[in-house]
Amino acid sequence: MTQTVANANAPVLRVEGLTTSFRIDGRWTPVVRDLSFEVRAGETMAIVGESGSGKSVTSLSIMRLLAARSSRIEGSVQLAGRELTTLSDKEMVSVRGRDIGMIFQEPMTSLNPIFTVGRQISESLVRHRNLSQREARAETLRLLDRVRIPDAQSRIDAYPHQFSGGMRQRVMIAMALASKPKLLIADEPTTALDVTIQGQILDLIKDLQAEETMGVLFITHDMGVVAEIADRTLVMRRGVAVEQGETAEIFHHARHPYTRALLAALPRLGEMRGTSGPRPLPIIDPDTGVAMPSGSVSETVDKSQSPILAVRDLVTRFPVFGGIFGQQVGTVHAVEGVSFELAQGETLALVGESGCGKSTTGRSVARLIQPTSGFVGLDGYDVLRLKPLDLRRLRRSVQMIFQDPFSSLNPRMTVGASVAEPITTHKLAGSREARDKAADLLERVGLHASMMNRYPHEFSGGQRQRIAIARALALDPKVIIADESVSALDVSIKAQVCNLLMELQESLKIAFLFISHDMAIVERISHRVAVMYLGEIVEIGPRDAVFSNPQHPYTQRLLAAVPVADPARRGIRRDGGERELTSPIRPLDYVPPKRTYRTVGDRHFVQNEG
Fold it and tell me: In the chain, what is the greatest distance between 2 CA atoms, to the nearest angstrom?
């Protein structure tokens, strides 16, 4: 399906010679330099690049959302022929929301938690379209239906926290489209979303764009997303446009080395077919911008020894309270009858959408959450029966790496102190020895010992994740639970962290429980894969078997939703993209059905339906 581009000679947005500078140490330092591009009506222009490339600063410059005292914008930004850089602040306020809509990466931080979603959308309609409150509410309902919020009539008065991530992003799209803008700026709108929800949002933006013939400026670091949504693409590196043109031309005949490196570093689903173990990813050299070839790791796992981790019939439930007297009215069946084993030096990936129970499974195994029942055997311990003192000893065998290292690192402690703290807490060494080991661990994860006296805010996201890995290694664990540890990282930083995990596994024989919704990364890093849906494992087996021969309908849907780096697929719409994960909340008298599995291959098991 080819999108119609209307009035191609009259760009909705024209940017010429845009240079944005920030005042740093009393000097103006340019972070975007001499940038020029156009977006036409009905067209999608993608700006792609890694963190620090200047793509988000570009969008904020267009919207005039940068602080006037510490930033300076030069050049020309024209919306439908109207110069935006010379408008007063009051005039610019009327442009935002009315003529330009914007969708941000994290809708929870963009939506006001104390107001209903209906009120927040209506506010824009009253302000920019002069509707009455009654008219605005009716239009809000129409918009919620239009972005496919189920049962919009009952959800218009709900609060943001009562929506899933995908539904919150739909609310943000409804708000951005409320005043029928000429231009929609989407800044990383799908980065933190599960693969199926991401597919829904991409399809939704395409459909709404076709209806309104609006221009879309789509900002991302995911080349797979670019291939599926963009007519034209602009590649940025260090504040400069290194290449721009038709998306198909850039993907098939990229001229700049950095563009070729971005494409080479992109993990593609299916490229690991026929292999049995992990394979490192190519890394983009930060100085040259060229993709460097990856090394190799062992594909074999020693199965002769007893598993380091054995989980049997794990159940974790949470009470739901309500009513006038705050009594328990239901139960969240977060994890229901989960069983698996993990060998020394093996990576088992838990995959599925948000709410499927994969993170709760990891936290239950580490006893960060108290499971309801089941058996967890870890390094000889019966985890669920451990007393507090024994549980403390268990922490030496199992460690966690979380998605956001900044929130898991103490901002008031130096990174050296954070890495050394577990060693002194468990009384494994004195303060001097702990500090020496911390220095060695930082070196091992690719940082310098000289950085020990710095604080977390002085590091990039990728560096902070390396610090979190160093801290997890401090107690010489046998199992590391990595919970979405690379999902928010750029392609090259993601490759560096994944390769580091594989190298550490190779040298230290650590077992990884790798929790993720990024199927392409899972295919690269894992030995086996377990697919979770509504708290249950619906399919588990060797990675190649699950990816090349998926048997359960949910596994097939997950794999079909992964963006493919092929511009020829840009007009494709996904089948079944409107389904949200069914609620795991059950009545108090609910009895879970006994699940059975069938064998479809060597160590490949699929849950029987029904």
Answer: 73
Distance of CA 481 to the CA centre of its chain: 17
Residue 481 per-residue DSSP state: E
What tokens were used for 518?
């990024």
pLDDT at 530 over 90: yes
CB-side neighbour CA atoms (13 Å) of 343: 13
Residues forming beta bridges with residue 315, ordered by sequence position: 336, 373
- Strands 11-24 and 71-79 come out as antiparallel
Strands 183-187 and 215-220: parallel
Strands (E) located in 91-166:
100-103
- Give kind and range of the element (H or E) at residue 417: helix 415-425
Helix (H) or strand (E) holding 381: strand 381-382
What tens digit of pLDDT does each residue of 326-357 get?
888 889 899 999 999 999 999 999 998 877 88
Which residue, 527, 531, 555, is CA-closest to 542? 527
Judged by DSSP in three states, 541 sits in strand
Count CA atoms within 13 Å of residue 187 on its CB side. 21
Q: Which two tokens stand for residue 259?
A: 């563009």
Residue given tokens 């610090």 in the structure block: 467
Contacts by residues 441-447 (CB-CB < 8 Å, ≥ 24 positions apart) = 441/470, 441/471, 441/473, 441/474, 442/415, 442/416, 442/466, 442/467, 442/470, 444/470, 444/473, 444/504, 445/469, 445/470, 445/473, 445/500, 446/496, 446/500
Q: What is the dihedral of CA 546, 550, 556, 559, to 10 degrees?
A: 30
CA-closest candidate to residue 543, choices 555, 553, 530, 533: 530
CA dist., res. 570 & res. 216, Å (int): 15
Across 305-363, the runs of DSSP E, i.e. the strands, are 309-322, 327-342, 347-351
How far apart are alpha carbons 582 and 579 in whole angstroms? Answer: 8
- How far is the C-alpha of 91 from the C-alpha of 244, rounded, in Å? 32
Token pair of 252 as six digits: 């098939």
Helix 133-146 to helix 165-177 angle (10° resolution) is 130
Confidence of residue 582 (pLDDT cuts 50, 70, 90): low
DSSP one-letter code for 358: H
Q: 33, 442, 537: which is closest to 241 by C-alpha?
A: 33
Q: What's the chain's average pLDDT?
A: 86
Q: Which residue has the tokens 């022929």?
A: 81
Q: How many CB atoms lie within 10 A of CB 426?
A: 15
Where in 393-526 does DSSP place strands (E)?
398-401, 479-483, 511-516
Q: Contact, 196 vs 578, CB < 8 A? A: no
Task: Report the amino acid identity of residue 36.
Answer: S
> Token digits for 552?
């359960």
Question: Which pairs from 89-94 meet CB under 8 Å and 24+ separation?
Answer: 89/64, 92/64, 94/128
Examine the pLDDT at 287 and tell me if it is beyond 70: no
Give the span between the Cα atoms of 126 and 427, in whole angstroms: 62
**Cα 485 from Cα 482, distance rounded (Å):** 6
